[in-house]
TrEMBL record:
Chief localisation class: cytoplasm
Region of interest called Phosphoribosyl-AMP cyclohydrolase, as start-end residue ranges on this chain: 1-114
Ranges of residues in domain Phosphoribosyl-AMP cyclohydrolase: 33-105
GO cellular component: cytoplasm
Name of the coding gene: hisI
Protein name: Histidine biosynthesis bifunctional protein HisIE
Length: 204
C-alpha cells in the first residue's frame, strides 16, 4: 500500500517528474482510465482518497469527476516492481469515460466483470421501493421464496448435467448463479467476499 511518506521512493526522474497512473475497478478488475501524476497529484490522491491527476494541457491538478461528479474513490494504491507506475484501485460513482462509457477502455473481454454489473443492478432494484421487477418481487416475497428458487435452479442444473445437455447446463447454471446473487444480496454479502474466500482456500 502506497502511503504519503513513500512518495519520494517512486521513480520520478524517469519521465520528467511524472508517473503513469492507472485507475482499476476495485471489484471487477476493469481498467477504467489512465493518466499521469506528479508528486502533488499523488499526495492528494492518497490524502483525499479521490483519484487525482496532473493535467499537462491545463498545467494543474484535476480531480477525476470534478465536473461530472463521477468521482473515483480510492480503495487501494500500489506500484509496480520498478516503482515507475501507480495502480489505483477505485470505486466509481458513475461512468468514468467522458464519452459516457463505464470505462475509457474496451472491457468487453472481461466477462467476469458482468457479474459485478449484474450485482449492482440487483442492489438497485432491491432498494427501489417503487420497482416492480422480478428481482424486487423476490425480495418482497422473502427468504423462503429466494431459497426455493435457488433450490429449483440447483436441481434443474443437476438434471441438465446428468442428461449431458450442454445448452441446458449453460442456461440452468446461469439461472442458478443469478438467484445465488439475489440470495447473497438478501444477506448483504457481496460476490467479492465469495471470490476472496475462494482465493484464501487456494494453496497455489
Amino acid at each position: 500500500m502506497l502511503i504519503s511518506k513513500n512518495i519520494n521512493h517512486l521513480n520520478w526522474n524517469k519521465m520528467n517528474n511524472m508517473i503513469p497512473a492507472i485507475a482499476q475497478h476495485y471489484i471487477s478488475g476493469e481498467i477504467l482510465m489512465f493518466g499521469y501524476m506528479n508528486q502533488n497529484a499523488c499526495a492528494q490522491t492518497i490524502n483525499n482518497k479521490l483519484f487525482t491527476l496532473y493535467s499537462r494541457k491545463k498545467n494543474r491538478l484535476w480531480i477525476k469527476g470534478e465536473k461530472s461528479k463521477n468521482f473515483l474513490h480510492v480503495k487501494h494504491i500500489t506500484t509496480d516492481c520498478d516503482n515507475d507506475v501507480i495502480l489505483v484501485k477505485v470505486k466509481p460513482d458513475g461512468k468514468t469515460c467522458h464519452l459516457n462509457k463505464f470505462s475509457c477502455f474496451d472491457s468487453s473481454e472481461l466477462a467476469h466483470s458482468f457479474l459485478y454489473k449484474l450485482e449492482k443492478i440487483i442492489k438497485i432494484r432491491k432498494n427501489n421501493y417503487l420497482n416492480k421487477s422480478y428481482i424486487k418481487n423476490l425480495f418482497t416475497l422473502g427468504r423462503n421464496r429466494i431459497a426455493q428458487k435457488v433450490g429449483e435452479e440447483s436441481i434443474e442444473s443437476i438434471i441438465a448435467f446428468l442428461e449431458n445437455n450442454r445448452v441446458n447446463v449453460i442456461n440452468e447454471v446461469s439461472d442458478l448463479l443469478f438467484h445465488v446473487l439475489i440470495l447473497l444480496q438478501d444477506m448483504n454479502i457481496d460476490f467479492k467476499s465469495i471470490i476472496l474466500n475462494l482465493k484464501n482456500r487456494s494453496h497455489d
